[in-house]
Amino acid sequence: MTDPIQAFMQANGLAQPAFAPDSRHHGLPLAQTTLPDGREVVFVTRRFLPPPENFARLATVTVVAGDRLDNLSAQHLGAAEPNWRLADANGAMLPEALVAEVGRLLAITLPEGVPAPGGAGDVR
Length: 124
What we know:
The chain is an alpha+beta fold. Helices cover 19% and strands 19% of the residues. The chain is extended and about 50 Å long. The N and C termini lie far apart (48 Å).
């Protein structure tokens, strides 16, 4: 059985996004290169970290021994998979660095560009 959305997109010449809307890579274009041996390789183009000031802070948590980013994400964002949102909101190129130092403060935020409820809030 064909997915009706995919069928519609194919029938109308629309490309399916390479990544789901909740992916860190959603909306990034794909590029293609040819390797010296002639193989074609498709890759995701470079992604830049968004400015931390683009995030409305909901809370601040202190890293304790044994913390893991996926667990913090599950606890504060409702699921482990969007742990990249914590990395983005805290300006971390290497997400694992966020939990490497006990006592570090981490911002728990809304997604980038989503304003705090009521239009106010602690925006970094």
